[in-house]
Amino acid sequence: MIDYTEEDFAETVRDVDLVIDSIGGDYGARSLRTLRDGGILVRLTSKPDEDLLRQAGERGIWAGCVLVEPDNAAPATIAEPATGRVRLGRLGFDRSAANRRPPPERVPGCRREIRMRRIGGVVCDGGMTIKTDRPGADGLGDVVRVLGEWQHDGGLVQLHPGDVGWFWRFGAEPTAEATRTWSRAGEVLAVGLLDGADLLRLAFAPQALQDEELARQVVEDVSAPERGVLLEGKAYVEAPMGALVQDLLLRGGWESGEPWTPLRRDLGAPVPDPGVRVEVIGPEQAHEWAAVLRASFDGSTFTDERWHAMAAGAPYADARCLVVRNEQGEAVAAVAVWSAGEGKPGLIEPMGVHRAHRRHGYGKAITVAAARALQELGSSSVDVCTPSSNVGAVATYRSAGLERLPERRDLYRSAS
After folding, report:
1. Quick one: pLDDT at residue 252?
2. Fewer CB within 10 Å, N side or C side of the chain?
3. pTM of the entire predicted model
4. What are phi and psi of 333, to 5 degrees?
5. Sign of the CA dihedral running 87, 70, 159, 341
């Protein structure tokens, strides 16, 4: 048994017949060093690249890819080309009491431990393969739940349950079709939302931000159109700052896009009265909220039908839609606020002021009203993110008591 935190298996193990690689990345090249000439390298994550195939071919090593569902009988089938030359033991984890301990990935700042077992000339990699999936409409509730669990004050700004809730205006099935999950052993570690065909917005479990196996799988998925995540051509990825996936994408040729400005207000102190008439919108007033939104954003096609679809979604159980009315009783500004649960950051998405009623302080008023609503819902803070080029929006949010956080940038892949 070899623990990679104590020693490098590529320096210790030699002359094995077969390596089963379920990690990917540079583990393929490192595994070649453990194989005898004429050995076998099987990857379970992706096809070997041209350089790896060349290195293997120079030594007569067969290198290939097998994509499988978890199956304890599969390794015996993989080993058939080497029948009579190797003995292959059963793959699995040692579940004896002496070896029972919490998974390292649950310990903050701890990298996942990888154990390699040498059995009769075979190195078996005990890592678990990352599974990319679409949750389906029935699974969206679980996606919203884990996104809520991943939100915390002082943490990275990333995809929020409210982002999924806002997308739900298109209906449950389209929302499910736009959602991707990455999981290991049934535990969801990353969630992606396709906010349009060319933009993937990502969130990661806090303990998985530096998970190399996960990051490499996400990068492979977003880089290959046949994986069904991003289409061919120019595409964008929004990932939390400091996540390993950002580093890997940049190394792979992706570039930094336009800056965005996150803003946040702590809700530990009382929020003042906005000084205007504020109403919580229900189904009967949905048409008014929709009308203000259409008048706030050029090209908006939002309808009251979409409001009803949004309100029927799982995230809306912890959400509110508000309008501000002027002295004549007209709805002049609208906002939706989304809670992630008690003691978690809340989200503003969207906020708009009717174009015929701007420059009267309604943007500041509706933002303060949004903060008060989130405070009543138990949120610890209020978050919003806007393009840095939208200086008017940044100024409005700051006037309502939100503080600027460090800018963030999407990454993009050029069309060529």
Report:
1. 94
2. C
3. 0.71
4. -150, 150
5. negative
* CATH of region 131-258+409-413: 3.40.630.30
Going by C-alpha positions, the residue among 353, 339, 336 that lies closest to residue 399 is 353
Structure tokens given for 19: 């390596």
59-65 long-range contacts (CB < 8 A, ≥24 apart) are 59/32, 59/35, 61/32, 61/35, 61/37, 63/28
Cα 368 to Cα 183, 271, 280, 384, distances in angstroms: 38, 7, 14, 13
Dihedral through CA 206, CA 209, CA 214, CA 218, nearest 10?
110
Contact 172, 313 (CB under 8 A): yes
State both tokens at 314: 């799982």
Q: Which residues, other chains included, contact 383 with Cβ-Cβ below 8 Å and sequence gap of 6+?
A: 157, 160, 262, 263, 264, 345, 346, 347, 348
- Burial 85-113, CB ≥16 within 10 A → b, else e: ebebeebeeeeeeeeeeeeebeeeeeebe
* Mean pLDDT value across the chain: 85
- DSSP-derived letter for residue 283 is G
Distance CA 152, CA 344 (A): 5
pLDDT band at 153 (very low <50, low <70, confident <90, very high): confident
Encoded amino acid at 139, one letter: G
Question: What is the rounded CA–CA span in Å between residue 408 and residue 323?
Answer: 30
46's enclosing H/E stretch is none
Domain boundaries for CATH 3.40.630.30 within the chain: 131-258+409-413, 265-406
Report DSSP state, residue 155: S
Burial tier of 399 (Cβ tally within 10 Å: 0-12, 13-18, 19+) = middle
Please, which pLDDT band fits residue 133 given cuts at 50, 70 and 90?
Answer: very high
